[in-house]
Amino acid sequence: MTQRVSSATFLAIDVSPVSIVRTETGLSKSFIDQILRRPLTAPLSLPRLDNAVIKLNFRPAAVAAAALAAILALSGCGGSSSATSSPAENPYGLIEPGTIRVASLGDSKPYTFTDAQGNFTGFDVELFKDVAHRAGVDKVVFTGQDFSGLLSAVANGQFDVGVAAIGITDKRKETVDFSSGYLAGYLTVITTKNSGIKDVDGLNGKRLGVVQGTLQEAYAVRNFTSASLVRFPDNNTAIAAVNSGSVDAHFLDYEAAKAYQEQYGLISAADIPSFDAPAGFAIAKDKPAFKEALDKGLAAAMEDGTWKKLYQKWFPGSPMPEQYLPKAEQTATPTPAPTASK
Ligand code: SNW
Predict the structure, then answer these.
(1) CB atoms within 10 A of CB 302
(2) How far is the CA of 166 from the centre of ligand 1 (A)?
(3) Cα(279) to centroid(ligand 1), Å
(4) β-strands 282-283, 161-162 pairing
(5) What is the pTM of this model?
(6) Of 61, 157, 193, 254, which sits with the fewest C-beta atoms within 10 Å of its C-beta?
(7) Which among 24-38, 82-96, 220-234 has the top mean pLDDT?
(8) Pairing mode of beta strands 9-15, 18-23
(9) Which residue CA neighbors atom 10 of ligand 1 most closely?
(10) What's 98's DSSP letter?
(11) CA dihedral defined by 331, 337, 341, 342, rounded to 10 degrees?
(12) Does the structure show a pLDDT above 60 at 56?
């Protein structure tokens, strides 16, 4: 997908006094004159100046800057290039056509994390790249965020998608759309070997870490009312606090908990099912074509065994949720149709 197809069109303006010296944009001089004189905030419908490059010979600078800002804003030339590209060039409405910008996490191993070279990898990362490829996009750029800011960053257009084991909930659907689900598992409390915490009752009166904005935080607020919650921006900070003893336990996703247990000799005190909130890719609400392409890619990755291969690679030994396996491998018998009453 290319960003710009035709050669640039030039518009030169001398704004002292405000007058148009030359226009090749197809807009009449009087129309542009009108733009330059009107309040910058008033609405106006203007033909889009796709591919236009605007040159100003400005005197004084402030007037010129204001005039340029007005024209760029009105013509859709100044912002992200998606505003100027046609649906054919940018069918998914991406911030930059041909590139998917992903908001993610650098410390949620093995879901999403950065390796020794600083590259994003993990189950969610590899699955997303595979799905993006099926949707025709191979350029996928991951950026680490705090979890708490991730969904709003997607919603306000800083990223095309959020990928970070993000559980689909009705509450979150108020902010973003989600692809179909691709992972369902547990939320886990981990602690040190000698904390004495053996189950959820053991959390009474203890300091429990949660990452801000997570389902763990919401669950703990509702259910661990006798624990003191300590909110962290990310898992690494929370685990450092567990290791230093400033909190007694941390509540996070099952597989990430497992990785930290192996790394620091921590133990699991409780696993809480979160199957009602399977993880999905978070997408801004106004991108139905993008969502459709991701859903189609996900379904194909599940049906041809790619999902299963990635699951076994990143979560070895973990129980496999059957609903994402190829249909032929799903053993669960469907609920029988209701029979006539006795
Ligand atoms: O709800 C689970 C889902 O069932 C699966 O186990 C993957 O994790 C979840 O989506 C929960 N994840 C948390 C959340 O959505 C934390 C995400 C994170 O720390 N990256 O809030």
Answers:
(1) 19
(2) 5
(3) 6
(4) antiparallel
(5) 0.76
(6) 193
(7) 220-234
(8) antiparallel
(9) 167
(10) T
(11) -30
(12) no
Tokens 């084991």, located at residue? 165
DSSP label at residue 160: S
Structure tokens at 172: 């979150």
**Environment class of 17 (CB within 10 Å of its CB; exposed 0-12, middle 13-18, buried 19+):** exposed
C-alpha dihedral over 25, 28, 29, 32, to 10 degrees? -70
pLDDT tens figures, 265-318: 999 999 999 999 999 999 999 899 999 999 999 999 999 999 999 999 999 999
pLDDT digits (tens, 9 = 90+) for 204-224: 999 999 999 999 999 999 999
159: exposed, middle or buried (Cβ count in 10 Å: 0-12, 13-18, 19+)? buried
Look at residue 332 in the predicted model and tell me its pLDDT: 64
Side chain identity, residue 188 = T
Distance CA 171, CA 92 (A): 25
- Dist. CA 167 → ligand 1 center (Å): 5
Taking 3-state DSSP, the helix, strand and coil percentages for the chain, each rounded to the nearest 5, stand at: 35, 20, 45
With contact defined as beta carbons under 8 Å apart, do 125 and 140 qualify? no
pLDDT tops 50 at residue 29? no
Cβ atoms within 10 Å, residue 18: 14
Q: What is the mean pLDDT of residues 82-108?
A: 89
Q: According to DSSP H, which parts of the chain are helical?
A: 29-37, 61-75, 123-134, 147-155, 170-173, 215-223, 235-244, 254-264, 288-303, 306-314
Q: For tokens 């950026």, name the residue.
A: 143
* Phi then psi dihedrals of residue 44, to 5 deg: -160, 135
CA of 342 to the centre of ligand 1 (A): 43
Substitution candidate for ligand 1 out of 142, 146, 190, 215 with most atoms within 8 A of CB: 215
